[in-house]
């Protein structure tokens, strides 16, 4: 059954008014049309911004405690319905069911976390050098926020942005990726069921034109974006040029380094989890595995044995490890990278480009061996289940290789050597470092942000992101 796709502007549902059409297809069953709908027009975005502006004063004056209670209730509702919402996500973008249900539950926790933040002091009382002066600071919302979210985490990334924006007193115009309209509508429905007033969050479905209208609107005080590096850099330049705020989480070419003192079984497990979960469609996915030459042969044997056991297929099947990539464009992109690597002469150790199986966009888990650090397959973001094995001559060479791309999101070392772990953690140019943990995987209370071409602005998640959604006011009062 095709979903009915509607915007939510000022608390009222409406059919997007643009002319460009989009067909959302279940990537695991290409005959299953999820939705066939038009994108939003510039007039829709205009109406959404007006609705956000109309709601701004009332929402700002709502007590932080009351705002937090709405987020907490929405989080509880989301978690209580995680099973059904996970199934919806699996149909719309192909994530294996267990992962999808886990993401829905995690997103609910994110809303609960920011709901609880409403009870934390939002300023300070300061001493003054002047007599009889009471001096204090307070956080204020920045105003209207534009949120542009990607398709790979329909619930959690939306909640990473909506939670802190809302608890801080901002109103929001939100454009999600077009692949999962039902998931996006479900998030807003839950917020409104929890008591969110009309117009505080306004949902506009669309593509690049819709996003561009949000980015270019001078009434929007800040734009938070998650997506590709070229788009993020363009958004950051445009928003900054009009003296508004921008926060962009972008791509990665994440490396896992298997140190000479590694537990090889652990290293294999972390490689497989990081590279092939969600079909490699994570900005933090393991895309490069750096292996000390002395242990390379043993590690490769163990890795290939494990990869051969992985099942790619129906994401509703509990035995499936990785489902499909999200759409035909991504399918073509991933297969293109694989084909180019084969043509360049890199040894294909497992997988390879795979024709649609089971009527879906399935790509087998793919491993290339003996890849040079400067090869295209070792430098370009793929966003699919493809990993390049790069032999290195020790820790210093590994660090140089990790740092040798334009990206700087996540890196991991697998080792029993504590000194090597500390040297790696302080030497790699990445915003996220793991020791004996996957490159993928975050905790909601910790700041998450990339360096170099992987991130611009304040890190997402945790408490640091509140600095993006708020501005400081200092107040001095003198009493006679």
UniProtKB/TrEMBL annotation:
The keyword Hydrolase does not apply. One of its GO terms (molecular function) is oxidoreductase activity, acting on the aldehyde or oxo group of donors, NAD or NADP as acceptor. Residues 19-475 form the Aldehyde dehydrogenase domain. It comes from the Bacteria. SUPFAM superfamilies: ALDH-like. Keywords: Oxidoreductase. Belongs to the aldehyde dehydrogenase family. This is Aldehyde dehydrogenase family protein.
């Amino acid at each position: 059954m095709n979903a009915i796709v509607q915007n939510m502007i000022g608390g009222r549902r409406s059919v997007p008014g643009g002319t460009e059409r989009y067909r959302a297809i279940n990537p695991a069953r290409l005959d299953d049309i999820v939705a066939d709908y038009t994108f939003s027009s510039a007039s829709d975005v205009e109406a959404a911004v007006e609705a956000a502006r109309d709601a701004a004063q009332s929402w700002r004056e709502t007590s932080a405690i009351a705002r937090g209670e709405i987020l907490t209730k929405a989080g509880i509702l989301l978690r209580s319905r995680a099973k059904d919402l996970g199934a919806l996500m699996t149909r719309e973008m192909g994530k294996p069911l267990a992962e999808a249900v886990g993401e829905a539950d995690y997103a609910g926790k994110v809303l609960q976390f920011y709901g609880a933040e409403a009870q934390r002091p939002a300023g300070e009382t300061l001493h003054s050098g002047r007599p009889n002066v009471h001096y204090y600071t307070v956080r204020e919302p920045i105003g209207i926020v534009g949120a542009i979210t990607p398709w790979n985490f329909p619930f959690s990334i939306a909640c990473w942005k909506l939670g802190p924006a809302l608890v801080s007193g901002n109103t929001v115009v939100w454009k999600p990726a077009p692949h999962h309209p039902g998931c996006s509508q479900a998030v807003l429905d839950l917020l409104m069921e929890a008591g969110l007033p009309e117009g505080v969050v306004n949902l506009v479905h669309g593509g690049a034109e819709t996003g561009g209208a949000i980015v270019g609107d001078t009434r929007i005080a800040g734009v938070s974006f998650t997506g590709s590096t070229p788009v993020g850099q363009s958004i950051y330049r445009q928003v900054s040029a009009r003296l508004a705020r921008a926060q962009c989480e972008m791509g990665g070419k994440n490396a896992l380094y298997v140190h000479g003192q590694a537990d090889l079984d652990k290293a294999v497990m972390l490689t497989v989890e990081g590279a092939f979960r969600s079909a490699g469609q994570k900005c933090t996915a393991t895309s490069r595995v750096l292996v000390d030459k002395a242990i390379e042969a043993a590690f490769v044997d163990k890795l290939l044995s494990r990869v051969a056991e992985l099942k790619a297929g129906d994401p509703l099947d509990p035995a499936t490890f990785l489902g499909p990539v999200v759409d035909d464009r991504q399918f073509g992109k991933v297969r293109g990278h694989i084909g180019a690597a084969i043509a360049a002469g890199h040894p294909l150790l497992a997988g390879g480009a795979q024709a649609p199986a089971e009527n879906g966009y399935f790509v087998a888990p793919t491993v290339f061996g003996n890849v040079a650090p400067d090869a295209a397959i070792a430098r370009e973001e793929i966003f699919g289940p493809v990993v390049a094995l790069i032999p290195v001559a020790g820790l210093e060479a590994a660090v140089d290789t990790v740092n040798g791309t334009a990206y700087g999101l996540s890196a991991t070392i697998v080792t029993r050597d504590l000194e090597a772990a500390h040297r790696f953690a302080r030497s790699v140019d990445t915003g996220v470092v793991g020791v004996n943990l996957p490159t993928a995987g975050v905790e909601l209370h910790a700041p998450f942000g990339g360096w170099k071409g992987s991130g611009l602005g304040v890190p997402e998640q945790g408490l640091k992101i509140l600095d993006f959604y708020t501005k400081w006011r200092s107040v001095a009062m003198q009493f006679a």
